[in-house]
Amino acid sequence: MHSNYSLLETRVSYRLSSNSETEAPRLTDALRLSVQEQLIPGGTLQEKFETVTALGYHGIELRSAGGFRFQQREGELQAAVRDGVVISSACVDMQCFIGDLTSTRRMEARENLKSQLGVIARCGGRGVVAPASYGVLSKRLPPYRSPRSAEEDLDIITEALAELGQVAEQEGVCLFLEPLNRYEDFILNTLAQGVGAVQRAGTSGLRLCADFYHMNIEESDIAQSIVLAGEHVGHVHVSDSNRHEPGTGHVDWLSGMGALSAIGYQGWLALECRPRADLPTTLVRCHETVVRAQAALAYPGCGR
Question: Of 10, 47, 175, 259, which has the maximum CB count within 10 A?
Answer without folding.
Answer: 175
